[in-house]
Amino acid sequence: MRGYHHHMHEGGPMHGGPMGARGMERMLDRVNATAEQRTKIRAVLDAARTEERAQAPARRQLHEQALALLAQPAIDAAALENLRQQQLVQHDQASQRRLRTIVEVANVLTPQQRAQIAQEMRQRAAEHGHRR
Prior knowledge:
The chain contains 5 helices and no strands. It is an all-alpha fold. The longest helix is centred in the middle third of the chain and has 36 residues, at 35-70. Helices cover 81% and strands 0% of the residues.
């Protein structure tokens, strides 16, 4: 039953990680982003999402290859290691792309707005820490 539940959420409107569209809108409201800033930031996020979607098939393919190797009668450790390294390269590229997105969004905001967002994120992290 747990697996089924997970699939319901996958690819939903909130899909997009911590920089999800709805969270971003709320953040822009709080720092009183101008219409021009919102337009620019939406364009940055849309471009990032498009790029991420383009990478998805390659990620899936590596995952499938790994599963196929693990299902073999004899485990090919070298082939699996090779796949692991390919996955690392992909993760690294995705991580670089996310950073580029954050930098582009940050460049649209004023230093005051960025300081306000950083402060709120710190507070939220502290709140989550206490709840446990």
